[in-house]
Amino acid sequence: MKRFLLALSTLLLFGCGEMEQAPAQRALSWADSKELIVLVQNGPTSLYVNAEGNYAGLEYDLISKFAERNALKVRFQVSSSYSDMLARLQRREAHLAVGGPLDQVSGLIYGTPYQDVEARLVFSGKTSEETALKAIKEGLATLSTLPQYVPALEKLKQTAPALHWEVVGAGESEALIEQVAQGKLEFALVDSHAAEVAQNYYPNIMTSSQIASRQQLAWVMPEQDTELQAKISEFFQTQLADGSLRRLLDRYYGHVNRVDQLDALAYLGRIQNTLPRYKKWFKEAEATTGLDWRLIAALSYQESHWNPEAVSPTGVRGIMMLTNETAQRMNVDRTNAYQSIIGGAKYIQLLKDTLADRAPEPDRTWLALAAYNIGMGHLIDARTLAVRMKKDPNSWADVKSVLPLLRKPEYFSTLKYGYARGGEPVIFVESLQSYYDILARFEAPSKTVLPVVSETVVVLNPENLPLEINSTLKPNRPERLAMAGNDMQSIVR
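RE: above sequence
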């Protein structure tokens, strides 16, 4: 049923005519058609439907900005494998493929490198790194990998001749990571940026970087298209110079290492055992405020671990850890779990409304949550400091870089609200982002929202691959959570 609805929505959103292009049809010149056809894989590092029901991903955002800068329409075509993208590009079925390592491929040229990655060996958390590396190098186990890492493995085989692997033609890094987490694969070699993101969702895995040297990611295009290559080079020079690329990288990867393995495993256990008691109230808070119930729940976990009796040394208390002043302002009893959840959600929305005319999403949400932790006055000081330092006060990535300065006299003495432990809201928000990401993988939104379709951006998915952030190939939710709980117990022991 789900696949039928996805296919139906694709036809309704993009029109039958968009789907009629034959797979082998040669793409028209982008300069003539003013439309860029871009091949991309589905995944948390490239393109997916996020927790809010919008298209997201580093590659999606970068391509959209590139197209807007050059007054182009863009048509994303979702592919099942990177090798398929390269083959289709060699046949000139598209203008560009994104998300792969800088390499030498016949008939293709690469644009400006924009991100460093490395190959990561992924294995069960019950296995030590030493044992895993020995098993791989001595040929005691087969390594599953993607086509782009074959050259690195061939180089490693010169010093470890017993090494052997199998190439997975269709799929992406997260799918391999997931199979290791489920025990279906022993070892996988994947992209480091994908592994770092996925470790929050699969904390029963471990990784090692002692396999291959670092690589750079770059967009790839037919070698004849030097004009497109020049435009890409100009685009990335601008993105680097004005800090836009740094801010985007922070949006997707700036928080991925904040929650450690044991914390993530404990969280998964409480999602199964504790969250059901309060879920209906979090959903009611969403209905009242419009905030995603999973964000409210993640905030509550960050504050109290869903403990309505929680009390801090500074006097904040309850499941949302409200101050007495905030509880009175929201007209709620903070010791009552239901009232605390509703009051906390309304307070977040109030903080967001204060920032509404200045900061875009998702930055506005993260800035509001920083204010929830440190107070709006200190957030105002941090944004003032950001302006002084020629940073963007509406960017969470820029504001979080100056927040820790609020504890230094040379800075706080020049600001209205004075000293603050500015590092704490950074840790607070980054941890909350991780908890929210995890919860979005295990819990569905209260209502299905189809991605907003732009007049200049189209996403085609002819293979009907699942694009939602919580719909990759997984066992059902209770089974996954039970598996995580068992792994937590074995790791702790």
